[in-house]
Write a sequence for this structure.
């Protein structure tokens, strides 16, 4: 049986839906905090059990008989997130799961200045140490995040945000389909996957251009100073500790994980963690040559950047390459 957690959440529910197109309902189980919200799945023959990462006994019941468990990362941060994921991993192993899948992030890194990336890296490290075969789905940035970044742009005509780089915004539906494909074909990908992303990248200047075309109104991109922008956010209630530029580089955020923070530029860090060594791809069925064919040219593709990419010899994997028949492509 394949057990999926977070099946009443946005990504988990789409993974279950996509998996049910590939395997019979009787082979699928869900672990949810509120089974009444999964009644429709029970009607389709899916085993619905209550499971909460903070209650190990509930997980033992929810994961019973699982050959694979897919853990959807909890919407928590820091020690709470890592503890929750570790509890789920422990429970999956205790249930005898032969493979554990985890929804990580394309930027998972122990030295990222973006807090959730530390949690994903720590969870991947914990998984790797267990010795149980695992697949860490390095999901791209959710396309659903873009409207939050835009803020009041449609009213003010201005996207105000710090300097940014190109991002391959990816839909939940595409990521869910990639997860379902890998669940239905266990072992097809072992360990951390290459980044699972849409094929095209856009920076906020590009987004401003798209909005201008869509609305017929000029939307400008304005680059805000990091500190000014962070101060604005904290003034509106965002916790200061979440602001990268305000954190000490050696802040002991995760003593149990012995993480080290560095002053690496977040842009540089994003670039290197968004790519994987080509060697990682070469032994897999999903390997592809070169960057996605339709990779959009942006300000980031300067000759220096291209030289650096060539030097690193890195490649990326699009969701479409996991499943070339994907219907929910985020191609524009
Ligand atoms: N790739 C990205 O850009 C990106 C962006 C934001 C977040 N994320 C990560 O991706 C995850 C999934 O995204 P999403 O959009 O599906 O979020 P979501 O709709 O909030 O789903 C999160 C799921 O985790 C479950 N959950 C939370 N705490 C739990 C616990 N203690 N025990 C068991 N289950 C628990 C929730 O259960 P309930 O249904 O009962 O609430 C929910 O089903 C997020 O939780 C976050 O870790 C990724």
């Amino acid at each position: 049986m394949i057990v999926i957690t977070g099946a009443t959440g946005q990504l988990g529910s789409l993974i279950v839906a996509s998996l049910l197109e590939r395997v019979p309902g009787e082979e699928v189980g869900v672990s949810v905090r509120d089974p009444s919200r999964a009644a429709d799945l029970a009607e389709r023959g899916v085993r619905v059990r209550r499971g909460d990462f903070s209650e190990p006994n509930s997980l033992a019941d929810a994961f019973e008989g699982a050959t694979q468990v897919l853990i959807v990362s909890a919407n928590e941060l820091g020690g709470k997130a890592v503890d929750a994921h570790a509890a789920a991993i422990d429970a999956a192993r205790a249930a005898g799961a032969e493979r554990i899948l985890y929804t990580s992030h394309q930027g998972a890194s122990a030295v990222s200045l973006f807090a959730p990336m530390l949690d994903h890296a720590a969870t991947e490290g914990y998984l790797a140490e267990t010795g149980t075969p695992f697949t860490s789905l390095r999901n791209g940035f959710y396309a659903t995040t873009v409207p939050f970044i835009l803020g009041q742009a449609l009213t003010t005509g201005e996207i105000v945000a710090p300097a940014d780089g190109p991002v391959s915004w990816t839909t939940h539906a595409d990521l869910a389909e990639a997860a379902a494909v890998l669940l239905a074909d266990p072992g097809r990908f072992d360990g951390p996957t290459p980044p699972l992303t849409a094929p095209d990248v856009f920076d906020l200047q590009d987004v401003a251009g798209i909005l201008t075309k869509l609305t017929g109104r000029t939307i400008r991109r304005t680059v805000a100073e990091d500190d000014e922008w962070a101060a604005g956010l904290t003034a509106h209630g965002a916790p200061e500790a979440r602001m990268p530029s305000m954190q000490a580089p050696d802040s002991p955020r995760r003593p149990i994980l012995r993480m080290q923070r560095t002053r690496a530029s977040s842009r540089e860090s994003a670039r290197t963690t968004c790519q994987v060594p080509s060697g990682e791809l070469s032994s897999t069925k999903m390997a592809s040559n070169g960057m996605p064919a339709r990779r959009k040219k942006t300000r980031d593709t300067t000759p220096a950047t291209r030289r650096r990419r060539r030097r690193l010899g890195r490649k990326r994997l699009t969701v479409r390459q996991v499943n070339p028949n994907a219907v929910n492509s985020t191609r524009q």
